[in-house]
Amino acid sequence: MFANIRGVGLFGMNSFGVNVEVEISKGIEKLEIVGLGDTAVRESRERICSAFRSSGLKFPSGRVIVNLAPADVKKSGSSNDLSIAVAVLAATGYFNAESASDSAFIGELSLGGDVRPVNGVLPMAVCSLKMGVKRLFVPADNAREASVLDGVDVYGVSSLGELAAYLRGAAGMKRTPKYVPPPQSESGEPDFCDVKGQQFAKKALEVAACGGHNLIMIGAPGSGKSMLAKRLPSILPGMTFEESIETTNIYSIAGMLDKNSPLITARPFRSPHHTVSAAGLIGGGGIPRPGEISLAHNGVLFLDELAEFDRSSLEILRQPLEDGKVTISRAAGTVTYPCSIMLVAAMNPCPCGYHGRPKKKCTCTQRQVSQYLSKISGPLLDRFDLHVEVAPVEYSSISSAKKEESSAQIRERVQRAREIQQNRFKGTHITCNAGITAEILHEVCPLTEQAEQTLKDVFDRMGLSARAYGRILKVSRTIADMDGSQMIDRKHIAQAVRYRSLDRKYIE
User: Fold this and answer.
1) Is residue 179 one of the residues assigned to a domain?
2) Residue 344 CB partners (closer than 8 Å, separation 6+)
3) Whether residue 152 is found in the same domain as residue 225
């Protein structure tokens, strides 16, 4: 007796089809699973046998061999429990295997026969769709997550007994309706209208949002750096459906999805504590899991108290920031996670935080100031397009009854600038000015003669690196887009240079 049922495997972001082949022959009663499975896969033998007994199903006597093909690809996790159980039922003739030829099965079995949720159902559902699957059976708690896709009927399974009865022709299981996210509510979200004063810093964040640029803020404690950063997502353009799927895939793999809201439609904002490890920041583990930089994909990664982070952890960020992806290699395999993010950082100018403030004396020695700031390397600093000095808020600003500009008003301008960039980069993988490559830098950043001369003077005077030169051009391009100008003028260069103050003032 032989049967073949489709399942889906997952390793990191890589999902792949699994053919579950079952052969039942005479011999000593034994269930054997082959096909390069890890410990969780091998342990499924006990879960499946117990689930059969608990569900009132007769497990076949004799030798049962299960092959997970392709046999040369590592299988991990418990997501193939359900497909193996269904394949065993098909091999015994419990139901007609042909009726499940257009189906795939995903889920973990409990000893009592219940179907438990698993991580990574959405990327596995995407893989199923590409395989031509018409019906997808997943744990009931994962059904809404898989139902965000078009082109496949999703069924939520609560127990092995329920599924077995349905496959045999019994009624009862219904297709899960397609999940449609509710309209986003902005009530209760941090808004820029709450920020008094700080016009320069607000403008810098608007520029950063328009072009998708990385930004670092430096200033004394209580100047509003964290407050400003937390409001940045409120002025970013809404996510496209493709971006939502990409981000949701990552959260699905990490097991961080809300089953009632399985599609992420708001840009993520991640703010790890400065004690986070390199693995927590980048990702890692035996089977590499996504880190904070990937969880912030299509959103904002905020590093508060930047100088307090472990320097080696920060240096690991350099390459992913350039590539927009992070690759983690382990003995079990190599995993690549996307990390297209806006990096926002905040730090004090010295250990006590009051260096350079005229009204409050700094207690740090020059040596302590230098050691503190040297924690941020020049190459890492170069990854920040904008450097913003956040001055203490004046009493007149705090006490003023004047209504500040709201996030919605700022977002309208950001959206207009992003639309210009979308038209400019149509047909390419670039989505905003921050992603401009060296090959097309001068093509999309035309300068007037005055702007060219200004940039040359700045480059020579400040001793900028080639990377900093490119950053200034990209920011200038964004500022010109905000002005509706096709050419980059002198004033655009001058404003962009104002956002590079740390190059000359703090970091030697």
Assistant:
1) no
2) 208, 214, 215, 216, 217, 229, 232, 300, 301, 302, 303
3) no
C-alpha closest to that of 483 among 232, 234, 214, 206: 206
Q: Which residues of 257-279 are buried (b: 16+ CB within 10 A; e: fewer)?
A: beeeebbbbbbbbbebeeebebe
In a domain, 299, yes or no: yes
Name the residue type at position 153.
D
Cis peptide before 70, with omega less than 30 degrees from 0?
A: yes
pLDDT digits (tens, 9 = 90+) for 230-254: 999 999 999 999 999 999 999 999 9
Task: Give me the residue label for tokens 């418990």.
Answer: 78
3-state secondary structure of 283: strand
CB count in 10 Å sphere of residue 300: 22
What are residue 238's DSSP bridge partners? none
- pLDDT digits 0-9 by tens, 396-435: 777 777 888 999 999 999 999 999 999 999 999 899 999 9
φ/ψ of 30, rounded to 5, equals -160, 140
CA–CA distances in Å: residue 60 to residues 43, 108, 464:
18, 20, 73
Q: CA 125 to CA 180: how far, in whole Å?
A: 17
CATH number of the domain encompassing residue 379: 3.40.50.300
- Domain of 48, CATH number, reads 3.30.230.10
As for how many domains the chain has, the answer is 2
